[in-house]
Amino acid sequence: MKNIFFNAHHSPAGAFATFTLGYPDASGGFGIELGKPADHDVYVGLESVDGSAFELLPFFDDHNAGRERERYEVDAATHADTSSTAEGHLASDFIPDDSEPWITGFDHEQIRRDFQVGSDTWSAGDLTFTIHTSMPAIPDPDTASVDALRLPLLPAVAVEVTVDNRGCDRARRALFGFRGSDPYCGMRNIVGPNQIRGVGQGRRVAIMSADVDVRPGLGFQLADILRPKHPEDLDFGLGICGALTFDVPAGVVRTVRFAVCFYRDGIATSGLDGRYYYTRLFRDIEEVGAYALDHFDELTLASREADAVIDNSNLSDDQRFMLAHAIHSYYGNTQLLDVDGRPVWVVNEGEYRMMNTFDLTVDQLFFEMKLNPWCVKNVLDLYVERYSYRDQVAFPGEDSLHPGGLSFTHDMGVANVFSRPGYSSYERPGLHGCFSYMTHEQLVNWVCTAGCYLAQTGDWSWYRKQESVFRDCLQSLLNRDHPDANHRNGLMGLDSSRTRGGTEITTYDSLDASLGQARNNVYMATKTWACYLALEAVFEHAGEVGLAQTSSEQAERCAQSIVASADVDGRLPALIGEGNTAGIISAIEGLVMPYYMGLSDCISPTGRFGALVRAMSRHLRAVLMPGVCLFPDGGWKLSSTSDNSWLSKIYLCQFVAREILGIDGADITRNADAAHVAWLVDQKCGYHAWSDQMVAGHALGSRYYPRGVTAILWLDEGSRESKQEARAKTFVYHRNRNRKAKPVAAQPAA
To answer: Are 688 and 703 in contact (CB under 8 A)?
Structure first.
């Protein structure tokens, strides 16, 4: 990876807050509830050996200096006073700020970066700057104690600044600070309990330290803080720059600990009145800082443990980078709310800030199930209670309506505004593309997510509470296939009445019909097949033999329809039976669901659905070719007819290709991964942290995004059988031995 200058989130879990850093100039900073970086000047630096300058990491903009002062001194000329002295300060405290351009950035060639999932370390000259984050396992707030929740939900990030002054015969000053931008509250110095010192903006963002000689300061510009003419200048209330400074004696190495803290008090959302859950655990930002600094060792230990998860894996360097980067972005979008005493988990959709977008939930599932499975159940329950609806369905081009059934909205709201019950912020009637309804896809997503949750947890008490929902989901799926059972083929054939003459779309809303249209889409067909398998397994466990039989038959019909649609070269059409012959990689996506439900026989090339699995393998080999579904650089194109390729989905399909279909090779793995990394760190993309939608390798949508954690699947590659057996035992999946499943036979090409 050649370019180290890309933004990355550094975020506490559930706070929808981020310390974003990595892209040059004023392009990072401290953000709460934003869909983009805060664009703060962030100051991290050290006095030079000879004392002539301060050298900073390149996360500030020189042009910002002095502008605030000009608003007040409209006509006046400013004259430097060089006569002040005071005992106990460095000689450099009293050098006038207009004598030399003595605040500068380190040369980019001098800077090194070690970016990992739990730590992000920058080094230049004698300065080292490390940001620590973790992958916390959050206890279920419904059952956990306050003490058990405080550390994993602490809205703070641990930071260390180390100065190696062994090569210098004089004391040197170091700093960490930022230039605030909140128009509603000013910057302030913080003097808290237990000798805590800090700078912050209002009550929402702060940098704090418990080191006794760390000095907070404010000024119009950084120079006012680094070399004040009078000690009292550091308390200048009009200053919009704030920094903490400390001195390092000659000949020693010193590390100072900082806590970057966030706090959003009061009601934060509308539609549903929610407060941040951490406000139940901490009184204010000062208490957050004190707790973080008091538990600093635990925070850094969690950081190292997170690093070890990936360090001890068999992933390549490119894979490790992409997984780490994606996890950073995921946590930057997480939000845990307290709504009338009930915890509500939200993952916000990056730059769009839509809340719990369901087609992200189903992909983030694999990550959340490893750490916080209660989050999955929490989201599923709220979709049932508030964001479900019932509709009718219609054949394309016809006005006659037929019974539809239960489904779920695309999202729960946007930008801290919960949508009205039964409606998303996104979906609109009368459309044939972006912003239309995703009724069938979200129905499938609820079932697949719920099936995976049950398989991984064995939480059958939850199933009993939602038993009627599972039944209704099956009936709704049947109705969307065909109103006449004798004409069903396992696919989606009718559109929701909510479209009002429009057509349903998929999560690939900004792509052409090859992936954008839901009806008869082979991508949706494979996910629907997986959905029926989930229902079959759930109903069999529950003793609902008839419902399990119906689900099984639908899975078989769906598989047969997919297999029969292949052409003589083995390619599956993007839209079955509609003449669209575009090749799409995402046809294989749905295979991941039975894998995670422990249904190993269903994804074996010699198993119950062997013909389908073999057809998927032939299809992927046929489309994964240069000029079809490979870009010239080796990156993957999800559709042969679109340059818009989504990294989160590529990560998922790579897992399916290698782990389930057994397809590997440098041409689709190593070269592709290198291309995908290059997309993310490209100078045009690096500002937006991890981004999903890459149009010909450039981030043009779904930026600052959480869904890349599909890459967590890569950690499960290898030793497939043992993992499958473990999952099957968790699901307690017992096939009805008295009912023989009909194998899916290969069908002639349509």
So the answer is: yes
